[in-house]
Amino acid sequence: MKANDTLTIGDLARRTGLSVSAIRFYEERGLVEAMRTSGNQRRFLRSDIRRLSFVMIAQRLGLALDQIEAELARLPHGRTPNARDWARISTSIRSEIDRRIDELQRVRSTLDGCIGCGCLSLKKCRIYNKDDRLAAEGPGPRNALG
């Protein structure tokens, strides 16, 4: 492998916008794997830019790091992932993304109705929880989130 096929951790940080400590964290989690030089310096493959970009996008979409790890584990080791590899991952997470979109639209509609109604009626409000009766069902705004 040629030297220009790899990146230092600083170069990878500059290319991805991640901090060096974040890259080390992702490396510890196995999302990227550094090679070591004879001087024990980390070197990353250029394809790790795409892997880390996927991590950042998936996190912004709300996927948990465990889910992201599972998807990246499906990518080949020893070669740069190709379009078919990434398409498999896209297909795999599509239903989760669709579920999140549906949830966001439902919450938006609930909030639009609540904020837009103007009545602030405690009898109709989906956020109000008289006498904390929903506590037995778990934490959070259960009525608003469905």
Written overview of the protein:
The structure is a single chain. The protein has 146 residues and is mostly helical. The chain has helices at 9-16, 20-28, 47-60, 65-72, 83-117, 142-145, and strands spanning 6-7, 35-36, 42-45. The protein has six helices and three strands. It is elongated. The mean pLDDT is 83.
The total count of helices amounts to 6
Radius of gyration: 22 Å
Distance linking N and C termini? 53 Å
Say how many strands there are.
3
**Order of strands across the widest beta sheet?**
1-3-2
Strand content: 5-15%
Secondary-structure element order, as H and E? EHHEEHHHH
Entry summary:
The protein is mainly α and 146 residues long. Helices cover 53% and strands 5% of the residues.
Compile the SSE list and pairings.
Layout: E1 6-7, H1 9-16, H2 20-28, E2 35-36, E3 42-45, H3 47-60, H4 65-72, H5 83-117, H6 142-145
Antiparallel strand pairs: 1-3, 2-3
What labels describe this entry?
53% helix, 146 residues, mainly alpha, 5% strand
